Predict the 3D structure of the following.
Amino acid sequence: MDCIFCKIASGAIPSKKIYEDDKVIAFHDLAPQAPLHFLVIPKKHIATLNDLTEEDRLLAGHILFTAQRLAKELGCEQGFRVVMNCNELGGQTVYHIHLHVLGQRSMSWPPG
Ligand code: 5GP
Ligand code: ZN
């Protein structure tokens, strides 16, 4: 499958990896939008948030839990933002789900 994040998950494409276990991998974003900007992805290919199934419930929780644990470990105890873009209207450009974690600056609302 020609998916860039599957290739990152398998190690075929290098990344600045922060964390990995049997289910997820976290790595720094190539084009950071904040002093800290990393992505948490499942190793399983799931194209969009709309494609989550009942059997992915635990995996989805694991992605979120990993995001907050790493954010705290990387100095964002005071706060940070998580974002998951879904489909074209939601601003998704890579069709393998990923949770953005942005931190170490104050965030504004609403997002663009
Ligand atoms: P999306 O727009 O789909 O929500 O986010 C995709 C993100 O993946 C973007 O922030 C983009 O900078 C990042 N990205 C795209 N290709 C690569 C890559 O090859 N390596 C890394 N580390 N990040 C990537
Ligand atoms: Zn994939």
In short: The beta strands are 17-20, 24-28, 36-42, 80-83, 99-103. The pocket of guanosine-5'-monophosphate (ligand 1) is lined by residues 4, 15, 27, 29-31, 85, 91-94 (CB under 6 Å). The chain has two helices and five strands. The chain has one domain: 4-103.
